[in-house]
Structures are given as C-alpha cells and as structure tokens.
Protein 1
Amino acid sequence: MSTPAPDVDLVQLLTPAGELREHPEYSPRIAHLDAGDLRGMYRDMVLVRAFDNEATSLQRQGELGLWAQSLGQEAAQIGSGRALAPQDYVFPSYREHGVAHTRGVDLPDILKLFRGVDHGGWDSDALRFHLYTLVIGSHTLHATGYAMGVQRDGLVGTGDPARDTAVVTYFGDGATSQGDVSEALVFAAVANAPLVLFCQNNQWAISEPTSRQSRVPLARRGDGFGVPGVRVDGNDVLASYAVMSEALERARSGGGPTLVEAFTYRMGAHTTSDDPTRYRTSAEDEYWRQRDPIDRLRAYLTSIGELGDDFVAALDAESAELGRRVRTTVRAMGAPSATTMFDHVYATPHATLDAERAWFAEYEASFEPTEQAQALDRADERPTVGEVAL
C-alpha cells in the first residue's frame, strides 16, 4: 500500500479527518481565504466529480470512445488551479478536468475530444489552457519552451502582478519515467524558466506502481537538475493551493522552476478500458477512500458551521443540472465534415491548402450515395443505446 516516503516532508494543512493544521511556511498562504472561498473550492470539487461520473456513464453507454477519470484527484487540481493568475498558461495532460474548470473551460467541451468530433474543444489561447495531450510527457517540453518564450518577452520579474507570468505543466507519476520530462527539467533549470512542473502522483502508471518507477520520492527528481522540489498532500485542497501559490510566485518573480509532487490517489480506473481490480487490492482502495479530498473539506466546513443545508441543496441541484446538460450536449455532438481537417493547419491563408481543400470537396461530391451509406444514415436517426436506457 502506498504511503509517503519518510525522507521528504509532506505538506499538509487539512488532515483526513478535516482538522486544520498549522504550518509555519504554508499556513500564511491560505490566511486570506474566507468561508466563501472554501465553499467555492468545495463546489468546484463536487461539480468536477459529478461531471467525471457522468462522463464515465456516457462512455459505458457507448456515447464516448474513451474516458480518463480524475476521481480522487480533485483537491490537487482545484487547489492548484485556483492559485493561478489570469495571465498564467497551463499545459495539461488528459486528466486535468478540475484545472480546466478553474480556467473557465465549459466542462462538456472536454468531451468533444473523447467523442472524436474535435481535437480539443475550447479556445486555448483565450483561456490560457492548452489542449489535452495524450502522448505521455511530451507536453512538458512544450511548456518549457513556452516558458522560455515568456521569459524572453520580458514577462517575468517585472514586479507588476498583472504582467508577470508563470507557466504550469501537469503530468502523472508515469510520465516521470519518460525522457521528455527529464529534458524539460534540464532546459527549465538551465534557462531558469518560469515553470511549475506539477506531478500528480496517483500511485499507478496504469498497472505499474510508483515503487516500480522510482527508488526515491518523485519530489526529489528535481535535485539533480537544480530544480527545487516539494511534496504536498494532493488530497488536501488547501495545501495544494498554498504550495502552488509559492511555486507560481517563484516563477513569476524570476526565481526559476519548481517541481511539485502532489501525493494523491487515482480512485477510479486509468481509463474506462482499464480494470484496476486486476492489480489493486480492495484494502488499498478503501484506505484511500477514507482520505477522499471532498469528504475532507466537507468535514472541515461542517465543523466550523460553514456548510449550510441550503448551500448543499443548491449544489446538489446544480450537479444534477450539470449532468443533464452533459448528456444533452454530448448526444447533440454530430460528426464534423471531413473538410474540417483543413481548417487549422495554418494560422494564415495558404494557397496550396486552399487548393487541396477545394479538390477534396469536389472529390467527395463525385460519389453518389450508395445503398449502404443511405442505410447508415437511416441508422443514425434511430435512438442511441443511452437514449433507450434513459
């Protein structure tokens, strides 16, 4: 069973029982958060989990090709995501639904990728949140390069809080075994890039435990590169917020990169094509369910009298409405025209591409509908399995 290694301090501000702990370095970083802020964090986590569960159900009904759950990792994502400034830029992997939520991504838009109708689903430039990356670890290099560009644009260390910019890349423990992550650490360290490398150590790289990936805690991986590392309780939303705020402050001020290891647990499957019962025990799952990040904050808010019945009832209704909207939105996602493959190849008009688009459209139009295609069209008009079940 995975527990934090003893040679690296685990930053924790909220115990699994929901009791607030004092920390000389990090407690001051959450002192400004009032009850409304904490309820906001709680709401974010509840909504993201409701979305996650709905997406899992939709995949099981055949409405999505695949789904990667974030179940159990809500605190690491919401806490760190809420510490970001509007000008900061995020490079996610494919499980950062909570971070996406904090950046203003409309959650159903994430499902365009998993339904196979879009390569992304949101405006990454407007939201400062890049498209999901499915190639393990590759986006850490993209983030490093972007951070070096931000640095060269003079957007670091100016002292202007509305201008100084940090770049964050999120990845899992399995990605730390990829060469791309090591290369990102090399470039970030040497260039003193304004980068936060946020590793969500959820204990399992699909079926491979962290103990089979590293002989030392992942937070120490940065030592050899000259990148400071910190390990935080990833099921503690307050500690995740505090640690990320420090790392972001270091990056924006010109202090260079930080490696954060959020020690958490993937309570669900790696993806919906995975069966975690083949490599995990029920005792391990139960151990971590008792450390559920949402239960932890709920216990604290209840203990201080800041989780009223009206708030809970309104949140339950909001979660149910989100689920309904997710189902409706996903089932309304039609397959795009094949010609859309030409739409975003170049940022500016391109004569050769325009000619190829015109040729392809003419080529497709040259085919008469076959009886088989007409039959498929008629089949598309029938209710889906999910619709029949509901």
Protein 2
Amino acid sequence: MSHNLPDSLPAPEVDLLSPMLNQQGQVWTADFRGLKLRTALQPIYSISHKRTVGYEALIRAFDNDNSAVLPLHLFELPASEAENLLLDRLCRYLHIRNYSEIKDQVNWLFLNVSPRVVTSGSQSDSFFGQLLEKTGLPPHRIVMEIVEQPTDDAERLRDTVAYYRKLGCLTAIDDFGAGHSNFERIWNLSPDIVKLDRTLLTRATEDRRARQILNGMVSLLHQSGCLVLLEGVETRDQAMIAIDAGVDFVQGFYFRRPCLELDELPQSTMNFEDLLEEYKSSKQISHDPTQLVVNHFSGPFRRVIERLQKGLSMDQACFELLSHHTVSRCYLVDDQGVQLEDTLVSESAVKKQDPRFRPLENTSSADWFRQQYLRQALAQPENIHVTTPYLCVTGAYMCVTLSLAFRQDGKLRVLCCDILANADHNP
C-alpha cells in the first residue's frame, strides 16, 4: 500500500500518518515508498542495577521480497524537507505504537530524532505531544536522542531540547566523542544522558592512553551532571573496559543485538554478576598499583626524611633515592606549597630529558599548592601519599608522585618525589 506524500506539512497531525500504519496482532508496521518499516529494539543496561533500564528503537526496512534495506538507503529516499520530516515522524509513531504493546511499565524508550528535523521543524513540535496523548505513553519514559553533529541553528536546537524537557521527556546527546563533538554542546543543551561514540571504546581497547582519556571523559561528564551510556560494546574485554570507566549504562552486540521479535525482549536477561565478579577479582589480584609503589619506596623515602632532619643537604639526603632507575626527580616544598630549592634530577632522567620541554625544567620557587598530593601531605603529616599516574608539567612525561610532610627545625616541609609511571619498579 502506498500513499501520496504532501509537498508540505501544514499541520503536524497524527491523523495524517495513521493510514500509513498497519497492525498485525500486537506488532505494528508502516509503509513508506513501497517499503515495509518495522521496529527493532536493543536493550540498554545499567551496570549497577544489573538489569535492563531501557531500549533504543531502531528502524528496519524491507522491500516487497522481504529483503532488508539498509537504514542509510531508507533515509536517502526523502526528496524534500517535508518528506524528511514525515519519515522522521512516521518512525517515531511506529516505535511508540510498538513499545506501547510491550508489557513493560517502567523502562525508557530511546528515540532518535534527526537534527535536520529538529532545526527545520517547529520548536514546539506539537506532533510529538499529540502522539504521546494518542498512544498514552507517559513522556517521562521517553529519552529523545539527538545525534551530535553541527547545526546551522544552535538556538533553535536548544529551544527544541527545552521543549522536550518541558514536555516531561529526558534528553540525550548521541555519538558524543566522534569527529567534531565537544563539551560546548553539553553546556548549551544540558542533556540528561550522553551516549559515547563506539570509536572511543575501540581506541580504548587498543591503547591504554585512550582508556585513561575515556575514564577522564566519563568523570567530566558526571561532573557536568550527565549520566553516561557507552554504546558499541561487542566483546567481554570491552564490557570490562566499560565497567572500569565508570559509565552508568551499556549497550551493544555483546549484550544483545537489536531484536525484531519484540515480545521476547522482556524475557531478555544479562548475567552481570559474572562480569562484576571478574572485575572485582581483577582489582583484588592486581591490588592497588600505586600502593605497591609506596611499599617499594617507603624505606628509602623515610631515610631521606631522617637525613634532612639531621641537617644533611638535599643532595646528600636524596642520593640513595635518586639512584633508583625509575626515580626522575626530588624536591622540597614549604607549608605554602612553594618549592624551596632547585629540583634534583636523577642521572637517568637527565639522559631522557626532551629538549623541546626545556622551558619547563627550572622549577625554583614554583608553587605546587594546587596539586592534590601536596594538600594531602599537609593535611596528614607523617603519612606517605601517592598519586595516580598523571602528566608531569616539568617534562611532559607520565609519572606518579610520592609526598610526605614532616617537621624540620620546627617548620613543616613536604618532600616530593616523581617516579616514572610506565617503568619497572623492581630494583
């Protein structure tokens, strides 16, 4: 069955699209340009809850021979903005019709909305409000996903997102971290959920530095007030990376492929117990790598303190510590965070110094109070503190820093020592 498509949509009436939908039992399909459109749902899981918390609705198209047509080809069919708008609304109508038939009264439905539609349509998209009213699906169960890409009308996009939020829906930015995406969109739109692009996960699988960036990005998004969903999880190793990154939700082929048999979804479960047990076990087996550093250097570090308290110079006190092949530098700081003397650099570190970063080498009178390791040491004297790996500003290399506050001639001092993060700490 085909329908003549209007050149424009004078009114976003749900009734305009209703004749394009067909119901067979509890399953709805739609007709568009001789193709049959169906809804596929892919579960979204909360790691902490260990269960499904939502489903992303995806469109699937089939020709007269019931052969699948790529979604990319489907969305190339509209010949005008009006037809593009109609297809977008038809897909949302179909998905909500099908989701309303599922015996699930709690979880979210994630709906994709094209930025072209968002920025060209009415900001108050009254069609969607009519659709929810007609189907009876509560707006708080809808997550409107907006693909992260440039738009010529950022203000209208912001207004549209505000409309969906006012309607009672949640909003999400899709494919964040791909190509042009940046945090400006997060600040402007204040989405409830950010979906990280799968390329971030692919890189994190291959490169440990990319894994650290992924973890940092998740932390920044959480500080921005967003829940984080990592999509494209295809292997068990990637599932473990997602767990370690601290994301809230996961989605991908490893857990469940998009499913056309919608009645099977409520029975779909995923055993997160095994994944979380494996994660806990890996953390227990490896212990805390930074604590291993403290244990290894505790003796030499405290001997430096004893020598300084006896009146020896920094050169004399730090000789043993600087002779270790992983130690790059030692320096002394006062209770205000200001460095007291020139930094002592080990011979091995001198050989590895990169001349491109020479402007950063001289740290005489540098102020380190902003550094957490300095403030921790001042807050808890006599205890050795250690950082997680970070990029050292004096040489642009990855290191961990040991710090310990002690009394010398009645004054509080902090001894700091940088240790190469990627080196072998065995003597």
